[in-house]
Write a structure and sequence with these properties.
Number of domains: 2
Radius of gyration: 18 Å
Distance between the termini: 38 Å
Shape: globular
Oligomer: single chain
Number of strands: 0
């Protein structure tokens, strides 16, 4: 008999605090980070096209530069950053406004998927982690890092590790007392010890990274 994969409850302030305590109790290195900087923020984001579009901008650049470009595009596009607006603007128009060829193509692909209802944000919260990732990654430009960040921050799934996140890799090297930044595969293997709270461990590490290097957050992919 087929059993539909369970959908975990989303993290909230209470469950995040409980998970931080649980991780700190079993991992002295994470406990030291929490002691130094306090518990991490929930960093929840509103779901939908605008958030996922911003995550595309955050790929491979600092969060600050992505935020600056997002705000400028939102001012310049007639109607702001919406799926219909982006489709109307097209790749050429977006490139003229400062997007790279690749990110302009990704923006338009996402906008068309939303307009055509191939991607339905309202359904993602009912899907398992694997199914939600798969639905997101059907869209051109949405890879494992972006889908992972969406699950982690929008759906607030408790056990997601976003592969290829530079900030996490830097924080992990510091956590382990190493000068070498781990590869994405090495970081993912190390994070296995934090199941079923890998999303919470990621928040602790991001909190450490941002506390030590303010406004320098970087994405992946």
């Amino acid at each position: 008999m087929y059993t539909r994969p369970a959908v975990p409850d989303p993290l909230d302030a209470r469950s995040l605090a409980a998970a931080v305590r649980a991780l700190a109790a079993r991992d002295a290195r994470l406990a030291a980070v929490v002691e130094r900087h306090g518990p991490p923020p929930l960093w929840a984001r509103r779901g939908g096209f605008r958030t996922l579009a911003r995550m595309i901008l955050e790929q491979q650049v600092s969060l600050a530069s992505a935020a600056t470009l997002f705000r400028r595009l939102d001012r310049e596009l007639d109607g702001g950053i919406r799926a219909a607006t982006v489709v109307a603007e097209g790749e050429r128009g977006l490139r003229a406004r400062g997007l790279t060829r690749q990110k302009a193509a990704y923006f338009v692909a996402l906008a068309r998927a939303v307009e055509d209802r191939d991607l339905r944000f309202g359904e993602l919260h009912r899907l398992s982690d694997a199914a939600a990732r798969a639905a997101l990654e059907e869209v051109r430009g949405i890879g494992p890092w972006t889908s992972g960040i969406y699950l982690l921050m929008v759906l607030r799934r408790p056990d997601v590790w976003p592969p290829g996140d530079l900030a996490l890799h830097v924080a992990l090297s510091r956590l382990r007392g190493q000068n070498r930044v781990p590869s994405s595969a090495e970081a993912a293997r190390y994070a296995e010890r934090w199941r079923p709270w890998r999303s919470v461990a990621a928040r602790i590490l991001w909190h450490d990274y941002l506390s030590e290097r303010p406004a320098r957050g970087a994405g992946g992919e």
